[in-house]
Automatic annotation (TrEMBL), chains A, B, C:
It comes from Lamprobacter modestohalophilus. Signal peptide: none annotated. GO terms for biological process: regulation of nitrogen utilization. This is Transcriptional regulator. GO terms for molecular function: enzyme regulator activity.
Length: 113, 113, 113
């Protein structure tokens, strides 16, 4: 039995319109992120207007939150990779410090982190 | 193309019964909060009993989480504004430090923050 | 009217397959955790493969996130209690520092915390 490992990582919470979910997930995949979780059917209000998540027949207006944990040196490049997207589309990214308890589910932090 | 900006802010996660969603959102609006995200259909257990989110025919018992990011000097007044509510109703607020990457979606932090 | 209290606590976000929701909640209950919130119908991708939350007819593959706030000295024992589970099952735990505003909904921190 392996012991649980705690790693200091950056948690990204990326909130976008549901129709752009695959774009974000593809970007994470290409950045080498091996795990993420999706929260569906969010509502939100931002400077681009209100978005109501419960209108299931109008799914394009539903927001999703993509949660992932990445080594600190990967957070910056991912945020930069999202810049052109956020210049055109509604959304926001929350970044915070977390410990991740895992069994090899996330990319290893670089040595020294 | 604008560059993404990182701002240090306070993330508030406000969990209340769904029927009080509008009360909280109105309070945030009046406090000058320009963006928030709603997670619907949560279940929870607190000291006031258990609440099961999947009973969609009993929507009053469903919990919601209202996520927002505010400048640090706005967090205290919002929490104080919620005090009378939490004296009467079930719920909890989690406050944490985050960086927000955005394009003018959230209120500007006051100078010096 | 009671004043709101702020407590420094550890937030745990435990993401597991929906069929193990009760196992985790039972473990939290036995650890003395008095409050938690469940986010249902998550999707995710981890090293064990992809899990798509919107296939409601295949509910066993849906993920849930159990959010709780615990005193710091309780976080370690809970994570250790989850170790055998995570040796066998997909999932992850995010741990972060938060302030909790509450009215006696969560277990009191031990003196000196």
């Amino acid at each position: 039995m392996k012991a649980l490992k705690q790693s200091q990582m950056k948690k990204l919470e990326i909130i976008v319109q549901g129709e752009y979910q695959e774009f974000v997930v593809d970007l994470l995949d290409r950045a080498g992120v091996s795990g993420w979780t999706l929260v569906h059917n969010l509502s939100g209000k931002g400077s681009h207007g209100s978005h109501e998540g419960h209108l299931m027949f109008n799914a394009d207006d539903v927001l999703v939150m993509i949660i992932t944990a990445v080594p600190e040196d990967l957070a910056g490049p991912i945020l930069e990779g999202l810049t052109p997207f956020f210049n055109k589309h509604m959304g926001v990214v929350f970044t915070s410090d977390i410990s991740v308890t895992r069994l090899g589910k996330f990319q290893q932090p670089a040595p020294g982190q």
